[in-house]
Every structure is written in structure tokens, then in C-alpha cells.
């Protein structure tokens, strides 16, 4: 028996070692409190643990919930002899004690807990094999409408007890679209998005699903599974947008008025409305039955349609479904009268618009709905003011509002303006609108002369220029003070010379005929003047000036004896100053308007140079002319009628004398003071200057100088300094103490050259301190009174000295007449 037990233990040990099973890898240990896991469902006689105890312990004792299943042998091997089942008993509480040979407890008893570990030894099972459920069309996707439920006895804390649901089959299934989904953890069945959109009880009200449940989280090949059948009925969803609502505007019924309703599929939903966009006022409400009301009268003219949403929520405020769009259309009633486009509508019409012309359109407005009887307007003229020249000048097209001329073209002369009262009506209302028709003048009226013949107009031919000789008058019926009525008078006949002009008074259109150029009996004694009256603006086509725009008068110019008239205002002539006496220097002509002979005479011929031929007007010289005396000679010429009243006219004759080289050169002044000191010590010289009275050329004077007598060449020499100056020099020193008159020839080099011989006085005199003390000749300048006395006294003194010297010379005999020193001086001698 013992042996058998030992053998048994050995087998257990071997098994135990091969399985390698044990807590924390330990299969044996000292006896102490511990928890030992043991898998359920294993074959019996499995060693759980081997306890060890020190002597004196020799054996072990097992107590507690052994249930005839757990055993311990004397070696301390704990084992079970029946298979364990976690689902029956998961925890076994044992106590083990170590005993000595006497059976006394050495260690313990200590608690040993056997924890039965789960294995997947139970299948999941649907609680029902067949489920039935229903779903509303258009239910929110993902919102569960039914559950399937399965159980599994295995430990839910392990994979063995974790269930996963799945739809295996959906029948019918069109286009492979799943309409249903299942929550793999909870078994909740809901619609997919497609299901929410496409399920339609009218098409297919029932579906069958095969759902499966698997343990091991559904992820293990070895998981157990179960299936169940689910029948689903699709029911109509009554949560649907109602038909668009029409509300007649401006309702007088008491509000609120129910207009439509929404209903959630089940009772107990919370309803609310919200706007699509924020409006100034939102006249709608909903009650908890889902009835929708309009709360106040609507105005189509304010807003002709409303769109808003109705929402249904559960008691937690979570939306039950999509909100429904509610459309409200406001129906028009004729509650608006027609409105005139403006207080007064103004049309402008030209005078020549023909009968039937459209002259304007009155477009009144009606706020009521367009293209309905409420807003279709009719037009009618109810009054025309003034009724000139007749009533009913205008008509209006009843529905278009187009105004036309009904009878004739309008004339501004009749009235410049018509006021029309127009009745505009819709179905129920009438409005009066006012139309003002302004008539625009056109130039359709020609000027009409008050008379066509202004008769004979007799004027003296000497009537002053600028005189108004006649006032003519035409009138124009076009609008005053415009280019259509303004009148311009134009002489179209009888005045080709333009002697007359006509100015128009802009206010009265009177034409003032004035004289612009002298009248002339001799050329035009009688003129038939034709005057045309015209507008500055062109006439409209179809209207032309006719004879009524013409007037005539006869201008009769009477003769007046007039003075002769020179053919020129002034006569001019030019003649060379050396013209011979009797040369014709010019001529004048004058004519008497009356044709009388004219006799010419001169006045103011101060130099007596000219004479005029009384008949021919030829002017000729009667004396030598001298440009140097007067280069521009002015005389007056008089033309006198022969006979008649001897009227005369005068004008100027201007004679310009042109220069000829007719003046010989001369000394520039009277050289009275040129002297050389006597006796000459050396040859001396004096300088002089020449000039010429002729017109000088631009390059100045260019004289050449020479001695006037060949015989003087031994004694004198002339040398040119420049064009005007020359030097007279002595050739020796042997001169007497006296005045020498040296003839000098001066040539002006002109064309022809003119030569003059002048006498240059040079005095040889005794010099005192460089001054000529006693001029030998008498060529003094004009002396003053004091000077004259001085001269006289000096003369007496000198005479005395001379006499004395003469006597002394005579005494000392002659012969000693040799030259002393000669002093050249250009100083002025003393004036004595
Ligand atoms: C499934 O059935 C079990 C047992 O009847 C129950 O405890 C559990 O609440 C059910 N689960 C659902 C989702 O109904
Ligand atoms: C269960 O569903 C969740 C999400 O719905 C998914 O992530 C998971 O993979 C699913 N498990 C299985 C086993 O299909
Ligand atoms: C009228 O209502 C529509 C829709 O509700 C909105 O879009 C529009 O702005 C409203 N018009 C006025 C004038 O309030
Ligand atoms: C309602 O109608 C009456 C007459 O029918 C009118 O006088 C009133 O102006 C209307 N109200 C609106 C808001 O159109
Ligand atoms: C037309 O009416 C206006 C006022 O609206 C008035 O000034 C004018 O004189 C009227 N014209 C005629 C021709 O009645
Ligand atoms: C105007 O003068 C003409 C002659 O030039 C004469 O025949 C006519 O009778 C005169 N008319 C008047 C109205 O004097
Ligand atoms: C000229 O025309 C006007 C109308 O424009 C008419 O009254 C007048 O009689 C006409 N005169 C002549 C001479 O034809
Ligand atoms: C006018 O002069 C011309 C010649 O010059 C002469 O024949 C005629 O008789 C003169 N007439 C008078 C009215 O003197
Ligand atoms: C020069 O003398 C002459 C004759 O004596 C005299 O007629 C003339 O006036 C004098 N000229 C000057 C400028 O003194
Ligand atoms: C000519 O010579 C004189 C004397 O030298 C001088 O006074 C004068 O200015 C000269 N004239 C000219 C034009 O050079």
C-alpha cells in the first residue's frame, strides 16, 4: 500500500516535472501561506505543489474545502484527484499543517488558496436564437434601435469571456451595401449612413440579418461562436418636412394661426424652431405637440418667403434626428396702391413731333407681386390743362403707359406746357400721377416783316457816318431770346459797296439801318435796297424763308457840293538837291466830286523853291535846292474848285532832297592863331583840320591835302596825318616876321571829287615865353571890349618900340640880317 502510494507519488512528480508547472516557477517550497493557481478542466491526479517541512515534522494534514478533490501525501505533495471547473467553483480555501510523528502540529495550519484559472471551455450563446426589431426610415445612423445579447460562462476578465458581435449576412443586400451595423461589443444594431438614406419601407419593409457572436474577442481562430437571426421591419418615418406652406399676407384673423406641424416618431420629443439666417423678426412658433404657428400678420412686400428649421430633441437635449426645413411662402394680396415714379413726370416734346409720336412713358410702380392682377397697372388720362388749342391732345396706352400725340403736332405758341393728370389703377386701387409736357421750340417760324416796302428814303450824300437812317422791324414767333427767334438783317441787294449796315436790337428785333461808308450821289444816287431777315439758327427742314422775310426801300442820295478830293492823303517825292531849276519834282491830283475843274496852288513854300501848275498839278523847282539847308521840304498843296462855291482841299507835299557832293572841303574853323616863332631856329610846323558840308558817308571823311601853289613848294610842305588832319611844315628857316597866307588844296575824294583851296594863315612872330608877342598880321579873333583896349595900348607900345628899334637898326647899318633861333609853337598867340 505504501509502495503503491509512493509509486503514485513518483508518477505525479514525473508528470509535474515534465509539465514544469508551479507558482513563480517553483514547484516546491516550505510550508507557508500561499495562493496556487490551477487550470480548470485538467485530468485528475495533478500535482499542485510539494511542501517541505523540517523535522520533527514527518507528515502533512490537509483540511478546508477539499471537496474530496484535493489530497496531500506525507511527502508534502498536494494534488487533486478530480478535474476542476472554474465555472463551478473558482476558489478553494485549504489549510495545511505539518505534523510530527506523534501527530502533533509542528507548522500551521497555514491557509492555501487554490485559484481555479479559466480556460475557454464555454461557448457564447445568444440569449435568443431569433430577434425581432424595427427601425424608422431615415433614423440617425449609429443610433441603436435594438440589441442582440449573448452570454459566455468563461471568465469575462479573460479573452475567453470576451464576446464580439458581427453581422454575417444581410438579406436582401443590394449593390453590396450594408444598411445595418452592429456594435461588436454591445450588440447594438443601428443604421449605416446608407441605411439611413436609402431604406424605404415602400420599397422593402423587412430585412433579415444573421449575426454572430464569438468569444476570444472574436480574434482567435479557436474562438467559439453562436449565431442568431434578426428580423428587422423598416417603418415609415413620420419625422418628415411638411409641404411648403402658403400664408396670405396681411391676415386679419386672430393670431397665432396654426400653419403646419411636425411629429417625432415617438412621443415625448422636445420641439423647437430655429432660423436659417437671423431675420429682423421671426414670426413663427412651435408647441410641444409639434404644431407650428404664425404669430403675427406677414407682409409679402417685406419678405415673400421664409425658411426655418424644426428640431426634435430627447429629454437630454440631444437631437433625435436631422432638423426639418420648413418653407413658408407669403401669398400676395392687393394691399398696395400704385405709386407714381415721381411727384411730376416731365416729358419734353419738340414742336414738330408728328401725330402718333411717342412722347414718353409713365412707369408707375406697385409693390404687390409682379405679374399678378395685384400689380398690373392701367393708365388713363383724366385731365389735360390747358385745353389749348383743344382737349384730348394726348393719349396713353392703357397698359404700357406710353404717351402719344393724339391729334396734331404741338405749338409752343399755344402753350409752352401741358399738365396731365393720369389715373393709374390696379385691381382695387387708383392713384393719380402728374405728367408735365414741356414743348420745346424749334426754328419753324420765319421772321416776318411788318411791311415789305419801307418806301423812299432821301438822304444828302454828306449824311454822317454812323447815322441811323431807318428802323425796320420783323417778328419771329419762335421762342423769344433764342437763336430761333433772333433776327439778323442782311442787305442782299442794292448795296454792294457796303455803305449801309443793320444792327438788331436783341430785345425787340428792331433793325437799325446805319451808314457805314460815305454815301455818294455821284456813284449811286438811287439804290433799291432789299433786306433779308434771317435767324442765326438754321430753320428746321421743310421750312424756308419766303418773301415775307424780305423788305425793300429805295435809297435816294441827293447831291451836295463837295470839295475836291486828293487822290492821296499825302504826296511824296524825292529829288536830288542839284536838280536844275525848273525840274519837275512831283505832281498832285485832286478831283471834284461834282466834276468841276480844279485849280492847284501851293502854300508854305517858305524857301521859295517850288511852284505848282494850277491845272496839271505838276510841281517843279524854281530855285536851286539845297539839302544842306533843309533835307525834307514840306509844302501844302491846295486844290480849289473852279467855279461852284470854290471849295478847296489841302494836303501835304513832302519833298525829300537827296544829297550831291556839292560842297568843297573847307577848314573846320577860322585859323587865326597859327604862328611860328620868329626867327625860326629850325623848320617848324602847324596842324590843321578840314571838313565838308555834304552828307558824310559812313566811313567818314577822307581828304587829301596839297599845297595850292607850286611856287611854295620850296618853302612849305603839306603832309596828311589822317582823313581830316594835316601838317603844314616849313622847309627852311628863312621866313619874314609876318603873316603868310598859305593856299592849301583839299580834295574830298567824293564822287565826283570836289576840291577846295583854302588859305591857311600862319604868322611868324617874335615869341615871348613861347607866346607870339607881336602878330605881324591882323587876323585876331573877335576881341572883347577889354581886349580891344588892351590891344590898342599894346599897339601903341609896340609901335614905339618898333620905331626905336628901326632907328637903332638904321644906325647900326644893315647886313647883319642872319637867322637866329626859330621856335616852333603851336600855342595860341596872345590875343594882342
Ligand atoms: C445581456 O444579458 C445579460 C444576462 O441576461 C444581462 O446581464 C446584460 O445586461 C444583457 N446585455 C444587454 C446589452 O442587454
Ligand atoms: C470592434 O469594433 C471596433 C470599433 O467599432 C473596432 O475597432 C474593432 O476592431 C472591432 N473588433 C473586431 C474584433 O472586429
Ligand atoms: C426674407 O427671408 C429670406 C429667407 O428667410 C431671407 O433670406 C431674406 O433675407 C429675408 N428678406 C428680408 C428683407 O428680410
Ligand atoms: C394691409 O391691408 C390694408 C388694406 O387692405 C392696408 O391698408 C395695409 O397697409 C396693409 N398692411 C400692409 C402691412 O401691407
Ligand atoms: C403745371 O403745373 C405746375 C405745378 O405743378 C404749374 O406751376 C404750372 O403752371 C402748370 N402749367 C400749366 C400749363 O397749367
Ligand atoms: C419814290 O421815288 C420814285 C422815283 O425814284 C418815285 O417814282 C416814287 O413815286 C416815289 N415813291 C414815293 C412813295 O414817294
Ligand atoms: C411765308 O410763310 C409764312 C408761314 O411760314 C406765311 O404765313 C406767309 O404767308 C408766307 N408768305 C408768303 C409771301 O408766301
Ligand atoms: C476845264 O478845263 C478844260 C481844260 O483843262 C477846259 O477845256 C474847260 O473849258 C474847263 N472848264 C471850265 C468849266 O472851266
Ligand atoms: C571866319 O571868318 C569869316 C571872314 O572873316 C567870317 O565870315 C566867319 O564868320 C568866321 N568864322 C568863324 C567860325 O569865326
Ligand atoms: C587825326 O589826327 C589828329 C591829330 O593827331 C587827331 O587829333 C585826330 O583825332 C585824328 N582823327 C582821326 C579820325 O584819327
TrEMBL record:
SMART domains: CA. It comes from the Eukaryota. InterPro entries: Cadherin (IPR039808), Cadherin-like_dom (IPR002126), Cadherin-like_sf (IPR015919), Cadherin_CS (IPR020894). Its main location: membrane. Keywords: Calcium, Membrane, Repeat, Signal, Transmembrane, Transmembrane helix. Gene3D superfamilies: Cadherins. It is found in: Membrane. Residues 58-126, 127-244, 239-340, 341-449, 451-566, 567-667, 683-777 form the Cadherin domain. Residues 1-22 form the signal peptide. The chain crosses the membrane at residues 785-808. This is Cadherin-17. It comes from Galeopterus variegatus (Malayan flying lemur).
Amino acid at each position: 500500500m505504501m509502495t503503491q502510494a509512493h509509486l503514485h507519488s513518483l508518477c505525479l512528480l514525473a508528470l509535474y516535472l515534465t509539465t514544469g508547472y508551479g507558482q513563480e516557477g517553483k514547484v516546491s517550497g516550505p510550508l507557508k501561506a500561499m495562493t496556487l493557481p490551477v487550470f480548470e478542466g485538467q485530468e485528475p491526479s495533478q500535482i499542485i505543489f510539494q511542501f517541505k517541512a523540517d523535522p520533527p515534522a514527518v507528515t502533512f494534514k490537509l483540511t478546508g474545502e477539499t471537496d474530496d478533490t484535493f489530497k496531500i501525501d506525507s511527502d508534502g505533495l498536494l494534488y487533486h484527484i478530480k478535474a476542476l471547473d472554474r465555472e463551478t467553483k473558482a476558489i478553494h480555501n485549504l489549510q495545511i499543517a505539518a505534523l510530527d510523528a506523534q501527530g502533533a502540529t509542528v507548522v500551521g495550519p497555514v491557509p492555501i488558496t487554490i485559484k481555479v484559472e479559466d480556460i475557454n471551455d464555454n461557448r457564447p450563446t445568444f440569449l435568443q436564437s431569433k430577434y425581432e426589431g424595427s427601425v424608422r426610415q431615415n433614423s440617425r445612423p449609429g443610433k441603436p434601435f435594438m440589441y442582440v445579447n449573448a452570454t459566455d460562462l468563461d471568465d469575462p476578465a479573460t479573452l475567453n469571456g470576451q464576446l464580439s458581435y458581427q453581422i454575417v449576412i444581410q438579406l436582401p443586400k443590394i449593390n453590396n451595401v450594408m444598411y445595418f451595423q452592429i456594435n461588436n461589443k454591445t450588440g447594438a444594431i443601428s443604421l449605416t449612413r446608407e441605411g439611413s438614406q436609402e431604406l424605404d419601407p415602400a420599397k422593402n419593409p423587412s430585412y433579415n440579418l444573421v449575426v454572430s457572436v464569438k468569444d476570444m474577442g472574436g480574434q482567435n481562430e479557436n474562438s467559439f461562436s453562436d449565431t442568431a437571426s434578426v428580423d428587422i421591419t423598416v417603418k415609415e418615418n413620420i419625422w418628415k418636412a411638411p409641404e411648403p406652406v402658403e400664408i396670405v399676407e396681411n391676415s386679419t384673423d386672430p393670431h397665432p394661426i396654426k400653419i403646419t406641424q411636425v411629429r417625432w416618431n415617438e412621443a415625448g420629443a422636445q420641439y423647437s424652431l430655429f432660423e436659417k439666417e437671423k431675420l429682423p423678426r421671426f414670426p413663427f412658433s412651435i408647441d410641444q405637440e409639434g404644431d407650428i404657428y404664425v404669430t403675427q400678420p406677414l407682409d409679402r412686400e417685406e419678405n415673400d418667403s421664409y425658411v426655418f428649421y424644426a428640431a426634435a430633441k430627447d429629454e437630454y437635449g440631444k437631437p433625435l434626428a436631422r432638423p426639418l426645413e420648413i418653407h413658408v411662402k407669403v401669398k400676395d394680396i392687393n394691399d398696395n396702391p400704385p405709386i407714381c415714379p415721381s411727384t411730376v413726370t416731365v416729358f419734353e416734346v419738340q414742336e414738330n413731333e408728328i401725330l402718333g409720336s411717342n412722347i414718353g412713358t409713365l412707369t408707375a410702380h406697385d409693390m404687390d407681386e409682379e405679374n399678378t392682377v395685384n400689380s398690373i397697372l392701367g393708365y388713363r388720362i383724366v385731365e389735360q390743362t390747358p385745353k389749348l388749342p383743344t382737349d384730348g391732345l394726348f393719349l396713353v396706352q392703357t397698359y404700357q403707359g406710353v404717351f402719344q400725340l393724339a391729334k396734331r403736332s404741338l405749338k409752343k405758341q399755344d402753350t409752352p406746357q401741358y399738365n396731365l393728370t393720369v389715373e393709374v389703377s390696379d385691381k382695387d386701387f387708383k392713384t393719380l400721377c402728374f405728367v408735365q409736357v414741356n414743348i420745346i421750340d424749334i426754328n419753324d417760324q420765319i421772321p416776318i416783316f411788318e411791311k415789305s416796302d419801307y418806301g423812299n428814303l432821301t438822304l444828302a450824300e454828306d449824311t454822317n457816318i454812323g447815322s441811323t437812317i431807318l428802323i425796320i422791324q420783323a417778328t419771329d414767333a419762335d421762342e423769344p431770346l433764342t437763336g430761333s427767334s433772333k433776327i439778323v438783317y442782311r442787305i442782299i441787294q442794292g448795296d454792294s459797296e457796303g455803305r449801309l449796315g443793320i444792327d438788331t436790337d436783341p430785345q425787340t428785333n428792331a433793325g437799325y439801318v446805319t451808314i457805314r461808308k460815305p454815301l455818294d450821289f455821284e456813284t449811286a444816287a438811287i439804290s433799291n435796297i432789299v433786306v433779308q431777315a434771317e435767324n442765326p439758327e438754321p430753320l428746321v427742314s421743310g421750312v424756308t424763308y419766303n418773301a415775307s422775310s424780305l423788305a425793300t426801300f429805295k435809297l435816294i442820295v441827293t447831291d451836295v457840293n463837295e470839295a475836291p478830293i486828293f487822290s492821296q492823303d499825302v504826296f511824296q517825292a524825292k529829288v536830288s538837291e542839284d536838280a536844275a531849276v525848273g525840274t519837275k519834282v512831283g505832281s498832285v491830283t485832286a478831283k471834284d466830286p461834282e466834276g468841276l475843274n480844279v485849280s492847284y496852288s501851293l502854300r508854305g513854300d517858305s524857301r521859295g523853291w517850288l511852284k505848282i501848275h494850277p491845272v496839271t498839278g505838276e510841281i517843279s523847282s524854281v530855285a536851286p535846292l539845297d539839302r544842306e539847308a533843309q533835307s525834307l521840304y514840306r509844302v501844302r498843296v491846295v486844290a480849289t474848285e473852279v467855279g461852284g462855291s470854290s471849295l478847296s482841299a489841302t494836303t501835304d507835299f513832302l519833298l525829300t532832297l537827296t544829297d550831291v557832293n556839292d560842297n568843297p572841303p573847307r577848314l573846320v574853323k577860322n585859323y587865326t592863331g597859327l604862328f611860328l616863332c620868329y626867327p625860326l631856329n629850325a623848320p617848324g610846323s602847324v596842324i590843321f583840320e578840314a571838313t565838308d558840308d555834304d552828307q558824310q558817308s559812313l566811313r567818314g571823311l577822307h581828304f587829301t591835302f596839297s599845297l595850292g601853289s607850286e611856287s611854295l613848294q620850296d618853302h612849305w610842305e603839306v603832309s596828311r596825318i589822317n582823313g581830316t588832319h594835316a601838317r603844314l611844315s616849313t622847309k627852311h628857316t628863312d621866313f619874314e616876321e609876318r603873316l603868310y597866307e598859305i593856299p592849301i588844296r583839299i580834295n574830298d575824294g567824293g564822287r565826283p571829287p570836289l576840291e577846295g583851296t583854302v588859305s591857311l594863315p600862319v604868322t611868324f612872330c617874335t615869341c615871348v615865353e613861347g607866346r607870339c608877342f607881336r602878330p605881324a598880321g591882323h587876323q585876331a579873333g573877335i576881341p572883347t571890349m577889354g581886349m580891344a583896349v588892351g590891344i590898342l595900348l599894346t599897339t601903341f607900345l609896340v609901335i614905339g618900340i618898333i620905331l626905336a628899334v628901326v632907328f637903332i637898326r638904321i644906325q647900326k647899318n644893315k647886313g647883319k640880317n642872319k637867322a637866329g633861333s626859330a621856335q616852333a609853337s603851336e600855342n595860341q598867340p596872345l590875343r594882342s
